Amino acid sequence: MKLITIVELLGVISFAFSGAVSAMQKRLDVFGVLIITFVTAIGGGTIRDMLIGNLPVGWLLDINLITTIFVTYLLSFFVHPHAGKIRNIIFWMDTVGLAVFTMVAITKGLQFHLHPMICVALGTITGCFGGILRDVLLNEIPYVFRKDIYASASIAGGIVYFISAKISNDHNISSIIAGTVIVLIRVGAKFLNWRIPLMYAKDEN
Amino acid sequence: MKLITIVELLGVISFAFSGAVSAMQKRLDVFGVLIITFVTAIGGGTIRDMLIGNLPVGWLLDINLITTIFVTYLLSFFVHPHAGKIRNIIFWMDTVGLAVFTMVAITKGLQFHLHPMICVALGTITGCFGGILRDVLLNEIPYVFRKDIYASASIAGGIVYFISAKISNDHNISSIIAGTVIVLIRVGAKFLNWRIPLMYAKDEN
Amino acid sequence: MKLITIVELLGVISFAFSGAVSAMQKRLDVFGVLIITFVTAIGGGTIRDMLIGNLPVGWLLDINLITTIFVTYLLSFFVHPHAGKIRNIIFWMDTVGLAVFTMVAITKGLQFHLHPMICVALGTITGCFGGILRDVLLNEIPYVFRKDIYASASIAGGIVYFISAKISNDHNISSIIAGTVIVLIRVGAKFLNWRIPLMYAKDEN
Fold first, then answer.
1. Considering only CA atoms, which of A102, A98, A92 is closest in space to residue A161?
2. Which residues touch C138 (CB under 8 Å, ≥6 apart)?
């Protein structure tokens, strides 16, 4: 199995697990948890594929992916009570997942001959909309809109990719550099407590 | 008119009516009720078609379907004050609708050569996402995530279909058996008060 | 640049700005505002394109559109504190935008040989779903479902278009007449305080 596939699966598992845990915290029934798990794991890629016309969307043809998510779903019922203890593991999986999903989407955008700026947007959509759909279904304002350097890391990574690709003319090297940038920004945000400025005037009502 | 078409229309009418009633309970204006009515009736099939690439999506080419939903919408303003009295009729229409929609989607999945597990997922998406979209638009956590044996009936029916098809090698007979199972599970859930276990440890925070 | 393109850009800018202002009122971070700005501006057209199979969806290939929305997003941080003073300008931009989007969508529906009733629905979806998605992401019941003659204006304009096209057999003239009707209905609703009747019986629980 290729390294990229392993890393991709880690990302999917992490997204699926974050969906399952969120759904359980809202005390949904087993079916509700199932749907939220899947939507979180594959929602971003699904929207990407529907936008560019890559149909049927990827997961409909990838039974291994579905099985992986389903096993994660089953395991999450046992792991859930200990979610606090493995928070750090989830953070790392999630961060690597974001980097990989962003790069996979940018690669797909290039295959469809889309403009670099659009590719960056596709990368961000793929990385973030699973979580956005999760929060919408759980009746909350999406988390990424409020408190986290997450989407910004994906956007920054996408821009770094195109700068690097322009200079090096090498897709693989640029992907690794850009993915590393995404991971570093996330790590910096977490451990150095970076924040996105709100940019609102104080006198606003 | 074929039996399947009549039963399908019954399902659409029932879904449309459930959307209209929910929207009126939130006291939306006539346009809000219109949108919720349509989204509830055709939302599941629309998502299914967009996922598999069956475009334009079905209802764009089916003026009879649109007319049926529109007439249901108009009638629901008169029927709505009596919604309590016809609750049982709605239950039966809705149950038959779920069975039919699940089977139609599985059949469509097979035409697109999708894996049985994916076909079951498509059936459940088609049966449930109309109601999920309705609840999201009405700013509520989807009902099917919380209180009802509904999606589970669709999943169980889908699995029964593939077991039966493996044994009998007959699509029609298997569809009827699976559809009957869906109806029976829904009826059992309602009249015998079956519940989906929540599966949460008591000591969870 | 053609008149239609200028008017279309005015509509997009207005929709983008209304999204940005709504997101800032909820005090989202800069990325949240970015997403809401884009979803409001291109959400309706995106759903239209995904429904009819016009893929990749329009904005993926239109870098000018993306740039326009992005510049609007940046400017909205400066304009936002003065949003109250320019409310009237926004109303006019938004009204013209609704008229143009409705007509563009109907034209696209005709190109796909869809039934007039479906074309009217596409026009309304294109004009309204950007705002609906904005409100869903901001965790509110969509504004157009509750308080405004907005969708109704789009529907009325669509019907007028087909009546006029039947009589005059001229697409351009009919589009202008229908667009004017949409603008007039919106203006009438605002300045003459028209309302959509709620149509609920008083004794309803």
1. A102
2. A141, C22, C23, C26, C36
**B21-24: long-range contacts (C-beta < 8 A, 24 or more apart)?**
B21/B76, B21/B80, B21/B83, B22/B134, B22/B135, B22/B138, B23/B134, B23/B138, B23/C145, B24/B76, B24/B77, B24/B80, B24/C200, B24/C204
To the nearest whole angstrom, how far is the Cα of B157 from the nearest Cα of chain A? 15
Could you write out the DSSP letters of every residue in B35-99?
HHHHHHHHHHHHHHHHHHT--S-GGGG-HHHHHHHHHHHHHHHHHGGGTTTTHHHHHHHHHHHHH
Question: What whole-number distance in Å separates Cα of residue B90 and Cα of residue B80?
Answer: 12
Q: Are B197 and B161 in contact (CB under 8 A)?
A: no
Q: Which chains have 3+ CB pairs within 8 A of C?
A: A, B
- The answer to whether the Cβ–Cβ distance between C28 and A141 falls below 8 Å is yes
The predicted-structure confidence for C81-108, as pLDDT tens digits, reads as follows: 877 777 787 788 788 889 989 999 999 9
- Position A50: which residue type? M
Other beta carbons within 10 Å of A20: 29
- Closest chain A CA to residue C59: A118
Lowest mean per-residue pLDDT among A71-85, B174-188, B190-204, C179-193: B190-204
Q: How confident is the model at residue C205 (pLDDT cuts 50, 70, 90)?
A: very low
Name, in order, each residue with C-beta under 8 angstroms of A34's C-beta and a sequence gap of 6 or more: A73, B151
For chain B, what are the domain ranges? 3-191
Q: Annotate C111-146 with DSSP letters as a single string.
A: HTT--HHHHHHHHHHHHHHHHHHHHHHTTS--GGGT
Confidence of residue B1 (pLDDT cuts 50, 70, 90): low
Q: Which residues of A touch B121 (CB under 8 A)?
A: 66
Residue A160, number of CB atoms within 10 A of its CB: 19
Nearest one of A136, A189, A105 to A26, comparing CA atoms? A136
Q: Using an 8 Å Cβ cutoff, are C196 and B31 in contact?
A: yes
**In contact, C76 and C20? CB cutoff 8 Å:** yes
Between CA B117 and CA A131, with CA B129 as vertex, the angle to 5 degrees is 85
Quote the ipTM score.
0.88
Nearest-CA distance C141 → chain A (Å): 11
**What's A85's DSSP letter?**
T
Interface of A with C (CB under 8 A): 50-53, 55, 112, 114-115, 117-118, 121-122, 128, 132, 136, 139-142, 144-147, 150-152, 155, 196-201, 203-204
CA count, 13 A, side-chain hemisphere, B85: 4
Percent of chain A scoring above 70 in pLDDT = 92
Residue B44 and residue B130 in contact, taking contact as beta carbons nearer than 8 Å: yes
Q: Are the beta carbons of C141 and B26 separated by less than 8 Å?
A: yes
Neighbouring CB atoms inside 10 A of A64's CB total: 9
What is the CB neighbour count within 10 angstroms for residue B63? Answer: 14
What's the pTM value of the predicted model, to 2 decimals? 0.91
Tokens of C120: 């009217």
Q: How many residues does chain C have?
A: 205
